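Q: Predict the assembly, please.
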Amino acid sequence: DTEVTQTPKHLVMGMTNKKSLKCEQHMGHRAMYWYKQKAKKPPELMFVYSYEKLSINESVPSRFSPECPNSSLLNLHLHALQPEDSALYLCASSHPAGAGYEQYFGPGTRLTVT
Amino acid sequence: AQSVTQLGSHVSVSEGALVLLRCNYSSSVPPYLFWYVQYPNQGLQLLLKYTTGATLVKGINGFEAEFKKSETSFHLTKPSAHMSDAAEYFCAVTPLGGGYQKVTFGTGTKLQVIP
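A: Predicted assembly structure:
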């Protein structure tokens, strides 16, 4: 199984809502990532988890809160988002978080903040 | 600091023609190099990567890329374009080193295949 799954596929939320994005992989990867991708742009790294511990936070606003309950699951909790947070949110995983390891991406969650 | 430049934000080719997507990197030490493809409304998929060894790398779907240190390039090619190749292509680099090394993506090249 070389698949990273993400739910939901689409999400529309108001600025006062609380929602969560979910990501799952069963490849035994020990590094997981959240990226944000705006239209016609490359992905921008948000967070890196390595062995279930947060190792990188790219100065992401606190309205985004990541969580890694176990080695297969990664969540992104959303609260009080702004319209400019509307984007495609991609989850990825890799064998250790090392330089030569390619990342496997999920299909993404298309988020619209109204 | 490393960077990657993709020449041409849009490339159009006829079906059956050669595909050439350009990628140049800037790094004092040759990095690890990747090409990813993104189909509409999907995530990124690895096409191929160069870490060490043979400089001509073969990937999926008939794509290949050649690492040229003297030119700091890692161009992606495919001999004959197919309609299904229409997508966004990202070149990416990571520096050598242990532990997590941040991936730097190029700005992307949108490939259009004309029937």
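The first strand of chain A starts at residue 4 and ends at 7. Chain A touches chain B at residues 4, 6, 31, 40-43, 45, 48, 50, 55-56, 90, 92, 97-100, 102-108, 110 (CB under 8 Å).
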